[in-house]
Amino acid sequence: MARFEVGPANIRDVSYIAGNLRQNDQTEIMCQLPQGITQQQIGYICTRPGTSFIAYLNGKPVMVFGFDPMTLAGNALNAWAFGTDDSRKVIHSLTLWIRDNLLRDWIARGVTRIEARSFVGHAEAHRWLKSAGAIEEGPLHDLGRNGEQFILFAWHKGRLKQILRQLRRYSEIIKNVHV
Fold first, then answer.
1. Ramachandran sector of residue 135 (left: φ over 0; alpha: ψ -120 to 50; beta: rest)
2. pTM for the full predicted model
3. pLDDT surpassing 50 at residue 104
4. N or C: which end of the chain has fewer CB within 10 A?
5. Where is 113: in which H helix or E strand?
6. DSSP letters along 45-109, please?
7. pLDDT one-digit tens code per residue, 109-155
8. 17 pairs with which residues across the strands?
């Protein structure tokens, strides 16, 4: 049986994930980073205590994800994630982990908005975001280094509590979504 766990992000494991990205994640993140950036530099950028995490499958790092404050008040967060081909195998468990370990606390602290930006061609990420209750808000033109287009998804204050309730039923829904 597969063993899923989450831990704080560290340079070694993020560097490993950055060097073994699934194709759509490669396209999505590399156009947002400086040209010529190394795996180790990506590892450094993505290790912020308390806001960056690693998902493991059988002890192997498969996905890095995080939630960075967008406002000084801390009421809006930017969600991000990227992973290896094996990240598909943990998305269900990861979503439930976020619900059980982060979402309730965010609501209690007054988080009113969580945003995620996704490369326009990353259909599997879009399916997951929508299945997790995010609303597609529209295109973001010229966000990438070479003018790549993204789509903005968001969870809003009024929906965060509703989403917390919906995620209780998420187990059944996500089984039918292939990301």
1. beta
2. 0.87
3. yes
4. N
5. strand 113-119
6. HT--TTTEEEEEETTEEEEEEEEEESSTTS-EEEEEEEE-GGGGGTHHHHHHHHIIIIIHHHHHH
7. 999 999 999 999 999 999 999 988 899 999 999 999 999 999 999 99
8. none
Q: Which two tokens stand for residue 125?
A: 């990420």
Q: How far is CA 111 from CA 29, 72, 115, 177, in A?
A: 25, 12, 11, 27
Does the structure show a pLDDT above 90 at 27? yes
Domain limits of the chain?
4-174
Strands 150-156 and 113-119: antiparallel
Distance CA 52, CA 139 (A): 26
Backbone angles phi, psi at 145, to 5 degrees: -55, -35
Q: Which H or E run contains 166? A: helix 157-174
Task: Please give the average per-residue pLDDT across 22-47, as a whole number.
Answer: 93
Question: Cα-Cα-Cα-Cα dihedral of 97, 91, 127, 125, to 10°?
Answer: 110
Answer yes or no: are the C-beta atoms of 87 and 125 closer than 8 Å.
no
CATH code given to domain 4-174: 3.40.630.30
Q: Give residue-wise pLDDT tens across range 60-84.
A: 999 999 999 999 998 999 999 999 9
Q: What is the DSSP string of 133-164?
A: TPEEEEEETT-STT---EEEEEEEHHHHHHHH
